Amino acid sequence: MFLLVGLGNPEKAYKNNRHNIGFMALDVLSNAYHFPAFKSKFQGHYTEGLIGQQKVGLLKPQTFMNESGRSVGSAAQFYKVSPEKIIVFHDELDLPPSKVKIKVGGGHAGHNGLRSLDAHLGTKDYKRVRMGIGHPKDRGGDKNDVSSYVLSDFSKSEQGWLEDVLYGIEKYTDLILDGRDDDFMTGMAEIVSKKGI
After folding, report:
1. Residue 19 clears pLDDT 80, i.e. is over it
2. CA–CA separation, 120 vs 109, rounded Å?
3. How far apart are CA 122 and CA 95, in angstroms?
């Protein structure tokens, strides 16, 4: 089976934060593919079902971002899911808003959720769906003010591209499960480019 992980923070106050786009991605997939309701398991919210012909577990760690790896490590160990079958959806400061790329391995670039995953999985060889949210310095903000930026809600002006990205996740995630990462990224880019973002 595949384990799809969305990174974010629990509690209502964080629900619409940029840092919670990973949770948003899993909610979209859960709804689109009619998964059962999420239940408390593995220190997270967990459900499982099918995407296409693939058995998939969806996990939203409820440990707060900095300890996400505890939840993911527990689920991966229980189901004996190998790192190449773990796909993590997360916010990415180093990509412009609406840009989505897939990466395996590499550094965590200061992302505390990824840092925790690396530590608890003992490897960096899981797949990452990097969902661009831009960087505060690109918006005229303080480049050192990353924390308040990722922990603030998406603005009204961002809702359009956010909806498009989440629609693309819904439409094309099955391609990732089939090992067609390039086709996934092409599909995502086409959705965004049609809107002229």
Report:
1. yes
2. 17
3. 26
Q: Which pLDDT tens digit goes with each residue over 131-165?
A: 999 988 776 666 568 889 999 999 999 999 999 99
- Encode pLDDT of 22-57 as tens digits: 999 999 999 999 999 999 999 999 999 999 999 999
**Domain coverage including residue 60:** 2-194
Query: Is the distance from CB of 42 to CB of 120 less than 8 angstroms?
Result: no
Q: What angle do CA 38, 42, 45 make, to 5 degrees?
A: 20
How far is residue 190 from each of residues 15, 20, 63, 114, 184, measured CA to CA in Å?
Answer: 28, 24, 35, 28, 10
Residues with active-site annotation = 19
CATH number where 56 lies: 3.40.50.1470
Q: What's the total number of domains in the chain?
A: 1
